[in-house]
Amino acid sequence: MPDIKHFDADATLDTVVRLFWRDGMVSTGIQDVVSATGVNRSSLYATFGGKQELYRAALRRYAERRSQPAFRRLAEDERGLPAVRDFFAELIEACCHGEYARWGCMISNAHAGAESGDPEVRALLDRLYRELRGSLHAALVTAGRLNQLDPGVDPDSMAEALALLAHGVNLRSRAGVDARTLHRTVTATLDAIGAIGGHGTTAP
User: Is residue 193 very low, low, confident or very high in pLDDT (cuts 50, 70, 90)?
Assistant: First the structure.
């Protein structure tokens, strides 16, 4: 029986998340994981399983720590359209500045990558997309109640469009598009759906 090295599984998984997030699942081999974490293969296999199982665990960790808290904050925010603006502003800031600049989003990267062919990964991605769309829908319903939306805006259709825009921001930022361009695109979209000149205000 191989000697299993003792290590902090949580800290190791956090490192693996960053590795898969930055480089993608296909481009990351087990030896890359061993080198980045300092954990030997037998310990990795015994704790997480093979590379595919390790990737699934990393994707779940990313969703739990990064995506879902942002979705909940948006869904629970009672400000309406300003909450949507802030959601996108924070998304662009995270994508274009700081430690994880130009990494995109691990979820969006998975949608665009071969890893989405794994049925378990696909199911997780589909569930997260529904959660993203649901949080945007909740914010738009609030915006409608506050008279912040143009009367012709359908929250169902617009939530779908904004969810697609969020993934587009993630993917385009990874491709090197600058923050100013992304902000202009988001601002134009939100201005187009807002009441009274598109600024989410109401008449006095």
Answer: very high
Domains located in the chain, CATH noted: 58-193 (1.10.357)
Q: What's the rounded Cα separation, in Å, for the pair 28 and 64?
A: 22
Q: Report the C-alpha gap between 188 and 198 in whole angstroms.
A: 9
Which residue has tokens 């143009």?
150
Half-sphere exposure of residue 21, counting CA atoms within 13 Å on the CB side?
25
Q: For residues 83 and 64, what is the distance between their CA atoms, to the nearest angstrom?
A: 21
pLDDT over threshold 50, residue 54: yes
Task: With CA atoms as reference, report the closest residue to 141 among 88, 68, 196, 78.
Answer: 78
Residue 2: what pLDDT? Answer: 42
Closest-CA residue to 71 (of 133, 140, 162): 133
Cα gap 96→179, rounded to integer Å = 6
Cβ(54)–Cβ(16) below 8 Å: yes
Indicate the pTM of the whole model. Answer: 0.90
pLDDT in tens, 112-152: 999 999 999 999 999 999 999 999 999 999 999 999 999 99
The dihedral through the CA atoms of 168, 105, 121, 41 has a sign that is positive
DSSP state of 29: -
CA angle 126, 72, 24 (to 5 degrees): 45
The rounded distance, in Å, linking the Cα atoms of 190 and 171 is 19
Given a contact cutoff of 8 angstroms between Cβ atoms, the answer to whether 148 and 81 are in contact is yes
